[in-house]
C-alpha cells in the first residue's frame, strides 16, 4: 500500500457513526456560510520522505472538517504553520485551503482521529478505530526519526504505536517539551496549538519554537 492509497481509504471511512453524523450535519459557521464544507475524514499530508511526523488530535469542526486538510483554515493552523515556516519545515507561514500552495519539507502531518469529534473529544472506541490508520501511516514513512505529539491524546495514540517494550504509560505521563527515545525514533511532546492554549499563554511561540529546534538538532545528527 502507498500513502496515496491509504489516504483514499481514510477519506471514505465511516467506522464511527457518531463522528459521521457530526461531521455531516454540523451547521456552518456564519463566516463560512457561502463555502462548501467537505465533511470527510482528513488524511495525512506532507513529505513522503519525512523525518518528522507531527501528530494532532483531530480535525477541527470548521477547519479541517471544512477544508479537508488538518491544520488548515483555523487558529491552530495559523499558529502551527507560522512556526513550521520559521524553522524550515514549510514553504509558507499560512494554511488556508488544500490548494493554497503549502508544501511541507521533511515533515508529515496527520491526526490521531481523522474526523472532527463533538467538543473536540473523541470516544475511546473512536480513537481505537483510527489507530490502525496511524500505524499504517507510520509504517509507510520509512525515513522517520522523530514524532511530535501535540497534546495528550496524540501522545497516547503514538505511545501505543512506538511502545515495543510494554512500558506503562501512566509512569510516563504527558507533559510539554518531554523527550522519550524508542530505539531509532524519538518522541517529542508539546501542548496542542489550540486557541485555548495559545491565547492564554499556556503555549507561546517561544515555547513551540524551542521544541522544534530541539527536534531539528536531533534529526540532523
UniProtKB/TrEMBL annotation:
Domain of life the protein comes from: Bacteria
GO biological process, one term: base-excision repair
Residue ranges annotated for the Uracil-DNA glycosylase-like domain, each copy included: 43-212
GO MF term (any one): 4 iron, 4 sulfur cluster binding
Pfam families membership: UDG (PF03167)
Keyword entries, A-Z: 4Fe-4S, DNA damage, DNA repair, Hydrolase, Iron, Iron-sulfur, Metal-binding
InterPro entries: UDG_Type-4/5, UdgB-like, Uracil-DNA_glycosylase-like, Uracil-DNA_glycosylase-like_sf
Similarity remark: Belongs to the uracil-DNA glycosylase (UDG) superfamily. Type 5 (UDGb) family.
Protein name: Type-5 uracil-DNA glycosylase
Species this chain originates from: Simkania negevensis (strain ATCC VR-1471 / DSM 27360 / Z)
Amino acid at each position: 500500500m502507498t500513502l496515496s492509497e491509504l489516504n483514499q481509504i481514510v477519506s471514505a471511512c465511516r467506522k464511527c457513526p457518531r463522528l459521521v453524523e457530526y461531521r455531516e450535519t454540523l451547521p456552518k459557521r456564519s463566516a463560512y456560510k457561502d463555502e462548501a464544507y467537505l465533511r470527510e475524514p482528513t488524511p495525512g499530508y506532507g513529505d513522503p520522505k519525512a523525518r518528522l511526523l507531527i501528530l494532532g488530535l483531530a480535525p477541527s469542526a470548521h477547519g479541517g472538517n471544512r477544508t479537508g486538510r488538518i491544520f488548515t483554515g483555523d487558529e491552530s493552523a495559523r499558529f502551527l504553520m507560522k512556526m513550521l515556516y520559521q524553522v524550515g519545515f514549510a514553504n509558507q507561514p499560512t494554511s488556508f485551503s488544500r490548494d493554497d500552495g503549502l508544501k511541507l519539507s521533511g515533515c508529515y502531518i496527520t491526526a490521531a482521529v481523522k474526523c472532527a469529534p463533538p467538543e473536540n473529544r473523541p470516544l475511546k472506541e473512536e480513537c481505537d478505530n483510527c489507530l490502525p490508520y496511524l500505524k499504517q501511516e507510520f509504517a509507510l514513512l520509512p525515513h522517520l526519526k522523530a514524532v511530535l505529539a501535540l497534546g495528550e491524546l496524540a501522545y497516547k495514540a503514538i505511545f501505543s504505536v512506538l511502545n515495543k517494550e510494554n512500558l506503562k504509560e501512566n509512569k510516563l505521563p504527558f507533559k510539554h517539551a518531554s523527550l522519550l527515545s524508542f530505539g531509532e525514533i524519538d518522541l517529542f511532546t508539546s501542548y496542542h496549538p489550540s486557541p485555548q492554549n495559545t491565547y492564554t499563554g499556556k503555549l507561546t511561540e517561544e515555547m513551540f519554537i524551542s521544541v522544534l529546534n530541539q527536534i531539528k538538532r536531533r534529526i540532523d545528527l
